[in-house]
Write a structure and sequence with these properties.
Layout lengths: L1 H6 L1 H4 L1 H18 L6 H11 L5 H26 L8 H12 L3 H35 L3 H16 L6 H15 L2 E2 L6 E2 L13 H18 L18 H6 L1 H15 L6 H15 L13 H23 L6 H12 L8 H4 L1 H22 L3 H5 L6 H20 L2 H19 L5 H24 L2 H6 L5 H16 L2 H23 L1
Antiparallel strand pairs: 1-2
């Protein structure tokens, strides 16, 4: 009853409802613009809301957070350019649906799944925050290292027709992550004496170049192909279809919550893991994954939004941010004299339940605003390519420059746009390369930390067998490695063919 009393404060202060709505609406459109990240937007809000009451500031920032995570899916579906790293997996089936004329349906599915994922994440935050925090804190360096290795293995098959080519692209991404000054030894790596390369290559710049500019170049080389007229008469998914995919939504949301609760993991890793488990668990999708499968939208969108609730668990219960945005929110709470940590729930229960209420209200506004403007947005795909592609190039340039106000980022973006163009021409997937850059810091930092803690590389790897979490992750990593092999895929294809032949024989009788 006490929790309900604190949550109902939001209805006694109508300004909180208005600010939550504004935050979600603005967040959706910020998230849809490549280069304008939620981290950047909330950083600006911290200084903008410095003199506000803490309730009002939280309502606006939490609404923006929820809206930004969903907003990245719109440009991912319409233009094959993820507005945020968490939407990379959404491009794999979202853009093929848009090319078939179902962009409206794809955006509707993403809105519903983002809403469901957010709600499930909030439920776990409200009911099991201390328990999930204790589990997350049991993860050691070797566990995060294996998590990064799992991500790289799955990136190898992400949208690639050849796993070998996908792994090559992921390895190139890992190499690109080394560029810049080593954070521990201060050694310059692959900077070629240029001080502007010391800060390294921002993965958002890589993402904009490989997805945005490269796609524009590919489309400009195919001007003779007519644009597909979009079908926007049916946007809201049917109850039957939604209920049919509830098991997948629940599995993906659980993945998102657990990954979101791990410090430094983030929604992009959650979306990747959820997409991979969907490919492995969904039997007989109507359309193969990578060619417009609805399941390929459900999994990443439910996961990256449920990761929001997961990220708040270590932030509020332990004082450790789950991702970059919750790191900023910790600093915002500190400005107001609050200190997230083990005593946050007992000392300030009114704020904990206010955060839960604001997130819930933001999820509702996400569903409302997520269903608006879809017909208008779907028309973007119908704009003639000779007009649309130059606009995309200009947006890509602006987005790359806006990250750090650096002309060198525009140069990097151009280089990666050209690289992405040739990768696509030779049938390589660009998604693994971006994820390689993203996962590099997680891989390197935890490798070094593990070696320092255990004393040697051998001791670090033998520590795998000292905890149930490490053993489970190691087993899962070996399984993922084995299932990437050609032998396993041939065996699975023969098994599925035998099952289909048996079913056909039964029907014939």
């Amino acid at each position: 009853m006490e929790a309900l009393h604190y949550m109902l404060v939001i209805f006694r202060e109508p300004i909180l409802i208005v600010l939550s709505a504004i935050g979600v609406f603005v967040g959706i459109y910020i998230g849809a613009i490549p280069g304008l990240s939620g981290t950047m937007a909330i950083s600006l809000l911290v200084s903008f809301t410095f003199g506000w009451q803490v309730n009002n500031a939280l309502a606006l920032m939490l609404g923006l957070f929820v809206g930004v995570v969903y907003g990245g899916s719109r440009s991912a579906i319409l233009l094959n350019i993820p507005g945020a790293p968490a939407a990379i997996a959404t491009t794999l089936d979202g853009y093929p649906l848009a090319k078939k004329g179902f962009a409206g349906k794809a955006m509707g599915v993403c809105a519903v799944q983002s809403f469901l994922g957010t709600i499930l994440g909030i439920i776990i935050l409200a009911t099991s925050a201390p328990l999930v925090s204790r589990i997350a804190l049991r993860f050691h360096s070797i566990d995060f290292l294996m998590l990064a290795a799992m991500g790289l293995l799955m990136a190898g098959g992400l949208g690639a027709k050849s796993v070998r080519r996908g792994i090559i692209a992921a390895a190139i991404g890992l190499f690109l992550g080394t560029v810049g000054v080593d954070p521990q030894t201060a050694v310059r790596r692959f900077t070629f004496g240029n001080v502007y390369f010391n800060s390294g290559i921002d993965y958002v710049v890589v993402m904009i170049g490989l997805f945005g500019l490269s796609e524009a170049l590919v489309q400009l080389s195919q001007l003779n192909i007519e644009t597909v007229k979009q079908k926007v008469d049916k946007i809201i998914p049917s109850w039957k279809e939604t209920l049919k995919n509830i098991p997948l939504t629940l599995r993906s949301s659980f993945v998102g919550i657990m990954i979101g609760a791990l410090p430094g993991a983030g929604g992009e890793i959650a979306a990747l893991l959820a997409y991979d488990q969907a490919k492995r668990s969904v039997r007989n999708p109507e359309v193969p994954f990578g060619e417009g499968a609805i399941e390929g939208l459900i999994a990443p969108e439910a996961a990256n939004n449920s990761a929001i609730g997961g990220a708040f668990i270590p932030m509020l219960c332990v004082g450790i941010p789950g991702d970059s945005i919750t790191a900023i929110l910790i600093s915002a709470l500190t400005v107001y004299g609050l200190r997230p940590g083990p005593n946050f729930l007992s000392n300030t229960p009114h704020l904990f339940w206010l955060i839960v209420a604001c997130l819930t209200l933001s999820a509702i506004f996400l569903l409302v605003f997520g269903m608006t403007g879809i017909k208008m947005f779907a028309k973007i795909v119908e704009i003639p390519k000779e007009i649309l592609m130059p606009i995309i190039i200009v947006i890509s340039v602006i987005g790359a420059y806006a990250i750090r106000n650096s002309l060198y980022d525009i140069l990097w973006m151009t280089v990666f746009g050209i690289i992405g163009y040739f990768l696509k021409r030779f049938d390589y997937s660009v998604a693994p390369m971006v994820l390689g850059v993203i996962l590099f810091s997680l891989f390197e930092n935890n490798y070094r930390r593990g070696v320092m803690i255990e004393g040697s590389v051998l001791s670090m790897f033998t520590s795998i067998f000292t905890s149930p979490i490490s053993i489970s992750l190691f087993t899962l990593t070996v399984y993922l490695f084995a299932t990437q092999s050609k032998w396993y895929k041939d065996w699975r294809r023969k098994r599925d063919d035998a099952i289909f032949a048996k079913r056909a024989a039964v029907k014939a009788e």
